[in-house]
Amino acid sequence: MSLSVFDLRKLGYFSSPTKSGVMRWYLGERPMGSVHLFSHQGEWLRCSYQYENDDRSLSLTLIKTRCFFGGIRFWLSCPQCKRRVAILYLHGGNVRCRLCHGLGYRSSQTTHVGHVGALIRFLQLDNRAEDQYLDRRSKYWKGRLTKHHQRWLSRRIKMKQAGKAVVDRLAGHGY
Ligand SMILES: [Zn+2]
């Protein structure tokens, strides 16, 4: 269950002097939870919710930064680490950022490995395709390498070196 500045802005929690409402989360049709919200002057946002029949309430500090192209951007401050974040999560009765909930590190690392893994697979496939192509293509005309093929070859050799450098670098970092 996430509370994001994007949703809050869309719903007018930052633009009205005061605004109250309810945020509800569903899993399919099933209600997962809800939070009563009350914002004041774009300064703070109070969240009231229930956890195991216990009423809980906390005020989140809103942080404002100036956008490069004008206007104000709103952020939430994590109640635990005080970091400026765009999204807070309600899990186990607590409102925290990804990192404080212990979600951030693991999932971002998985994504990272996933992207890097995909890059490695791509480069390996690219190298293999390259080798096959070099073997098959007729590169000679009257017993000499054609100009077109020479240019192609030097460009591909550079590309291949760059690709190998990436693979070596990543492999060296334990990916
Ligand atoms: Zn935090």
Task: Compose a concise summary of this entry.
The chain is of the alpha+beta class and 175 residues long. It has helices spanning 5-10, 104-136, 147-172, and strands spanning 2-4, 18-27, 30-40, 44-51, 54-66, 72-77, 84-85, 87-91, 94-96, 140-141, 144-145. The model is unreliable at 105-112 (pLDDT under 50).
Describe the structure.
This protein is α+β, with helices and mostly antiparallel strands and 175 residues long. The chain has 2 domains: 2-102, no CATH class; 105-172. The chain is built from 3 helices and 11 strands; from the N terminus they run βαββββββββαββα. It has helices spanning 5-10, 104-136, 147-172; strands at 2-4, 18-27, 30-40, 44-51, 54-66, 72-77, 84-85, 87-91, 94-96, 140-141, 144-145. Strands 2-3-4-5-6-7 form a 6-stranded antiparallel β-sheet, with no helix packed on it. Helix 2 (104-136) packs antiparallel against helix 3 (147-172). The two termini are 32 Å apart. 11% of the residues are buried. Zinc ion binds at residues 78, 80-81, 83, 96-97, 99-100.
Topology, please?
Blueprint: E1 2-4, H1 5-10, E2 18-27, E3 30-40, E4 44-51, E5 54-66, E6 72-77, E7 84-85, E8 87-91, E9 94-96, H2 104-136, E10 140-141, E11 144-145, H3 147-172
Helix pairs in contact: 2-3
Bound molecules: zinc ion.
Zinc ion is lined by residues 78, 80-81, 83, 96-97, 99-100.
